[in-house]
Amino acid sequence: MSSYKKLSLYINSINRENIKSLWKDILESISGSDKDFTKEKLSKSILLLSIPMVLEMIMESIFAIADIFFVAKLGPDAIATVGITESLLTIIYAIGMGLSMATTALVSRRIGEKKPYRASIAAIQSIIAGALISLFIGIPGMIFAKDLLRLMGANADIINHGSIYTSILLGSNMIIMLLFIINAVFRSSGDAATSMRVLLIANGVNIILDPLLIFGLGPIPALGIKGAAIATTTGRGIAVIYQFYLLNKGNGRIKIFKKALRINLRVMSELIRISLGGIGQSIIATSSWIGMVRIIAIFGSTALAGYTIAIRIIIFVLLPSWGLSNAAATLVGQNLGAKKPGRAEKAVWATGYVNMILLTAISLVFIIMPHFFIQLFIDNAEVIETGAKGLRIVSFGFIFYAMGMVMVQAFNGAGDTRTPTKINIVCFWIIEIPLAYLLATSYGMNEFGVYLAIIVAESCMTLIAMWLFKKGKWKLEKV
């Protein structure tokens, strides 16, 4: 046999072995892994954690896409109602994300220290805090739904016919909050596959109920936009029940010890301390979307509908990237707990580069053919044009934002929620909103100015986050 043939056979055998090994790792990541992520090979750790986290975020984004897909059939006002309500829900998302960040920092650190009982205590305090906070949001949200829509610049038709959607979603915010927090418990313990399965169930129920309740079928009446709210709430509610079942069963990476089922003031205060920074950064970042919606609303329902669809598509793309970022956060927390800061830093850079490759590829598709994706949701030439314009412009900033979101989550995984908060204040409130208003109104750029401001703000966020990450103070954070 010639040397060339021997070499070819050797290369083919290596390729077959690598493919077989990769496929085995993918199956392991989806089914659940019991690997120690503070000792496992770093590339494999990132793979095992990131695949289910990416799939989890895809499941989360499908919620938004499914609702807007069916609601779009009801017209621009219905789409605008969903857009305004989602902008109001960002406050709830912000609190849920803030508590999730604190949960990730505490639980992952305790797991890295090999202290499962203390991890259980942290998980319980997070759930209690989320439930209590949601009570103070739900009741006023249900009562003042119309006033909130009016405050956001909605027209009379939206206020009179769409307020039921807003009322149901704000009133059921505890379900949203618990879904965020408990999935963070599973994820930060290293059990990302369970978080993925939870959202798979929630999405399955939502996708089945959405068309049935919105348009009706047989004896089931057509509830319109009210049906969309009921479908989403039911899907999430069933998922939360499943989460509690798994926690009570206690045969995964995280176990809820019965003697830990009480308020622990020391741990609760630490959780609140960390989560305040997380809540602050989330509120600053996500509530900036409220300001952006308010500016877009100046230009009417058509512009707002196009903006809503474009942002939903962007969220669909960015949430999987947040899944990669969450993998980095978990690896940072666990490796800092295991006294391996160098390994934690390597994990962040490696994850960031993977995220940049992913989002760059997606951005090219959106830049080349944005109209195609907007047309999937609505058959209205004006809405398609303004939505496509927004989708194309914002996509130019994906490559920068890809690294930035990983860096921000790395700080959070270390328990340093203060740094991202400061970054968000500068980038989203000092830069983005004033710039969007000036470009849209003073310079007559309309919605184009809003989209351009988004790119500028996110690029600034990435540059600042990279600079601070390289300084390395996050490695000294104690939680």
Describe the structure.
By secondary structure, the chain is mostly helical. It has one domain (39-476). The chain has 17 helices and no strands. Helix 5 packs across helix 6 (156-171), helix 6 runs parallel beside helix 9 (225-249) and helix 11 (301-337) packs antiparallel against helix 12. It starts with a helix and ends in an 8-residue tail after the last helix.
**How many strand units?**
0
In terms of DSSP E residues, the strand content is under 5%
Unreliable segments (pLDDT under 50, ≥5 consecutive)? none
- Mean pLDDT equals 84
The number of helical segments is 17
Q: Please trace the helix and strand order, writing H or E for each element.
A: HHHHHHHHHHHHHHHHH
What class would the helix/strand composition place it in? mainly alpha
Radius of gyration, CA atoms, in whole angstroms: 23 Å
